[in-house]
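#dry-run=false #mode=assembly
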Amino acid sequence: MKVLGIETSCDECAAAIVEDGKYILSNIVATQIPVHAKYKGVVPEIASRKHTEWINLVVQEALDNAKVEVKDIDAVAATSRPGLLGSLLVGLGFAKAFAWARGIPFIAIDHMLAHLYAPMLEHTVQYPFLGLLVSGGHSIICRADNYDDITVLGATIDDAVGEAFDKVSGFYDLGYPGGKVIDDLAGTGDSNAFKFPLPSLHKGDHRYDLSYSGLKTAAVNQLDLFCAPHINKPYKLSDIAASFQKTAIDILLRSLFRAIEDTGLNTVVAGGGVAANSYLRSVLAKHMEVNRELTFIFPSMELCGDNGAMIAGLAYQYLLQGIHSPLKEIASARVKSFKRGYP
Ligand code: KG4
Ligand code: ZN
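#status=ok
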């Protein structure tokens, strides 16, 4: 079964064709980053206008690269939440029209569940496992019992981790989006130059929660408070990047390892743009070497960020169960209220 998956929740205009929930026949991502870079962030009105201009071309390219025609597509799926409303509406409207015109099933997809499905396109993983969903808009540590059954153990109580990378990068004029830029710059910096504190979230309900507003403030205007004695002012940007990145990822790791210990779940599946972070990947790889019982599964770089393949892949799982969405399905900017729980 060939599914066309469309993703337009933010600044990537993406379409992919995936066969049987696993085989990626094509995966086209047209990024709007150059369009928004000069504003140091995504401008929602410009994003939705660009999606409107690009969506036909992107879907056509996905069909061409997969060497299939419109008549070969068995179902069509699109992200319906969460995201920028104007952007979501373009992909969702396109998918509904495509489904209606062809008389094929339409499936509305949750973006966060799709990020968690992305590694399944490349790996076989048994449920249950722990999910680490880290993107520009959300940061969630969850228990996954099925592709659409997750229990949130912890989430950010303020900014998302990717958002913190973007804001710190924006403040120092390093470029947009900030994650990759800071990751690259950190490679030449001293991660012990600044001793930024971890948030004090360790009790009861907040045991697995995350917080980034304090770190963000520290990294942009409280450097003097946290510089290590060996640092000579003026500060080097690479040192700020390396110290910020280390703390941002250590905040994630602290909550993640608590969850591993408390749940006894030894497999962690990561998804979302921040899953591309090299420090995160290298720390977890070292943990796997030391403790052979632990398994950390990351999507390949192309599948960390927003893409249509994860949308088409997850849609196939719904189709297998005979689940379709009605054409009156609406878009929502808000993240779904997943059930919350504690081990
Ligand atoms: O999943 P994604 O493409 O879009 C959302 O759903 O938000 O994630 C984008 C986020 C941005 O905040 C970007 O700065 C961050 O992922 N990101 C990274 C890296 N690459 C992208 N953050 C840290 N390290 C990276 N290498
Ligand atoms: Zn995303």
